[in-house]
Each structure stands twice: as C-alpha cells, then as structure tokens.
Amino acid sequence: MKSNPAIQAAIDLTAGAAGGTACVLTGQPFDTLKVKMQTFPKLYRGLTDCCLKTYSQVGFRGFYRGTSPALIANIAENSVLFMCYGFCQQVVRKAVGLDKQAKLSDLHNAAAGSFASAFAALVLCPTELVKCRLQTMYEMQMSGKIAKSQNTVWSVVKSILRKDGPLGFYHGLSSTLLREVPGYFFFFGGYELSRSFFASGRSKDELGPVPLMLSGGVGGICLWLAVYPVDCIKSRIQVLSMSGKQAGFLGTFITVVRNEGIMALYSGLKPSMIRAFPANGALFLAYEYSRKLMMMSQFEAY
C-alpha cells in the first residue's frame, strides 16, 4: 500500500515531536551544564564544580532552567526535522536516480538529514535563544550584565522584543545553520551506520529498543564531536547579546581564541558527551516506535 504523502508527513511530524519531548526530559540537566560552561568557562573548573555550584546557587530547579523553551525548541525542531527528512529522502532518491520506494544507503540518509536540518534551524533558533538565556540567567545577573528582573520565559521574550524587535529572536542564526547542516550529516550518518551494524543482515526495522538507543547515542556523539566549537560560539552569541551588541560568528570566534585559547571552544564538552546517549537514545526510540505504531494504525485503517 502506497502511503499518502500528507499523512506520511503528519506521521513523521508527530513522531518527531514525541522524540523531541523524550530528548528534553532525559537530557535537560546536562544541556544546562553545557551552556553554563560554554558561556562562562572561567567560573567553573569542570563538570562537577559546575554541578555543585548550580545546586548551591539555585537549587535542583537550576538544572531545569529553560525546560519550557527547550521543550518547545526540541518539539519544533524535531517535528520539522523528521517531516522534512522524509521529503529530503525523496529529493536524494531523485538526485541519484533511484526509484521512489528504493532503500537509501547510510550515506544518502545522512545527506537527507543534513538538508532537512536547514529547515529545522529556522524554528529552532528563536526558542533555543530563549532557552540559553534562561539557563545562564544567574551568571548574567551576578556579573551585572542584566537586571535581576529577567527570570521567566515571558520576561526574556519581552526583553528581546523591546530591544531588537522580532528579528532579535534570530541572533545566532548563522551559527545555528553552521552547526545544524554539517552536524546532522554526522548525526544521521552515525545513527544509520550503527543500525546497519546491529542489524547485520536483517532489516533495520526489526531492531529492538537497546540497539536503537545505542545507535541514537552514537549519532549524538558524532554530531557533537563534529561541530561542538560552532555550538560554543552560538551559545556565546545568543547569551552575551543580552547585555549589548555582540559580534558575529567570525568576530566572536577570533575573540574567544585570542583571549581564552582554542580549548575554550570545547568548554562543556563532557556533559554533552554524557547527555548524548540517554537523550538521543530516547529521541530515536520514541521516534521509531511512535512512527511504527502510527504506520500500523494507518495500514489497519485501510
């Protein structure tokens, strides 16, 4: 039975939303520590120091600062990402001269994921901007860069609109695109290669939850190892632009390397690596199983 393209897009969008939700719920504390260490590396000696200081300063809730925009960001990003992933797979099939129902290679799937991420970046940038600012609110207030009244999602949104207008939500868009497009090539490439390894001759659709989660974790680690310095610059741009005019990607990159050294671009890498397996494993597990369930329901409806 040939699937209706509109129904297939709706299934991919819904499954992507389920995956994004699972990703945030499992990985938010590590994401918070990552952003804090990226933007204020001199305040923290390492992951344990950042964790202990965050707890002593703000309490347990400090690890979940920015969860609301993070949920919105990940649901929006992964909904668009996986919906566009299906369309981009068809574009890749056409480009390489394959039939519409032909199986793509792992390399072709990686290319489709890379193309799809460009569309996802457009919905991700505004919500991730708010998330990053909320996550580093304590540090910005203690350094005197902003007033102590900005501590809710709505206050951050109002501040951006008042200062920069609607386009202010797209601070860091170029660095988001620079991260997403190559990063998701490695993300989907690592995921599909891992699934092929675990399948070992069987259909990848028959894999159980553990291989799926491990494959998702490998995909996440491939993404962060490939583009982590770009993500660090993006966080700097999005957070520090709160306190005044912030240089663009190249200017921020040169300033960080000149003043802090090349290793500053890898501040917060450890929590990202720890987060990669549970968060991305949960993402792909939720995506694949919810997608499979909806596909079966659609088939039974016919």
From TrEMBL:
<keyword id="KW-1133">Transmembrane helix</keyword>
<dbReference type="GO" id="GO:0015297">
    <property type="term" value="F:antiporter activity"/>
</dbReference>
<dbReference type="InterPro" id="IPR018108">
    <property type="entry name" value="MCP_transmembrane"/>
</dbReference>
<feature type="repeat" description="Solcar">
    <location>
        <begin position="207"/>
        <end position="293"/>
    </location>
</feature>
<comment type="function">
    <text>Mitochondrial ornithine-citrulline antiporter. Catalyzes the exchange between cytosolic ornithine and mitochondrial citrulline plus an H(+), the proton compensates the positive charge of ornithine thus leading to an electroneutral transport. Plays a crucial role in the urea cycle, by connecting the cytosolic and the intramitochondrial reactions of the urea cycle. Lysine and arginine are also transported by the antiport mechanism. In addition, catalyzes an electroneutral exchange of ornithine or lysine for H(+), a reaction driven by the pH gradient across the inner membrane.</text>
</comment>
<feature type="repeat" description="Solcar">
    <location>
        <begin position="7"/>
        <end position="91"/>
    </location>
</feature>
<dbReference type="GO" id="GO:0005743">
    <property type="term" value="C:mitochondrial inner membrane"/>
</dbReference>
<dbReference type="InterPro" id="IPR023395">
    <property type="entry name" value="MCP_dom_sf"/>
</dbReference>
<keyword id="KW-0472">Membrane</keyword>
<keyword id="KW-0812">Transmembrane</keyword>
<dbReference type="GO" id="GO:1990575">
    <property type="term" value="P:mitochondrial L-ornithine transmembrane transport"/>
</dbReference>
<dbReference type="GO" id="GO:0000064">
    <property type="term" value="F:L-ornithine transmembrane transporter activity"/>
</dbReference>
<keyword id="KW-0813">Transport</keyword>
<keyword id="KW-0677">Repeat</keyword>
<dbReference type="Pfam" id="PF00153">
    <property type="entry name" value="Mito_carr"/>
</dbReference>
<dbReference type="InterPro" id="IPR050567">
    <property type="entry name" value="Mitochondrial_Carrier"/>
</dbReference>
<comment type="similarity">
    <text>Belongs to the mitochondrial carrier (TC 2.A.29) family.</text>
</comment>
<feature type="repeat" description="Solcar">
    <location>
        <begin position="104"/>
        <end position="197"/>
    </location>
</feature>
<protein>
    <recommendedName>
        <fullName>Mitochondrial ornithine transporter 1</fullName>
    </recommendedName>
</protein>
<keyword id="KW-0999">Mitochondrion inner membrane</keyword>
<keyword id="KW-0496">Mitochondrion</keyword>
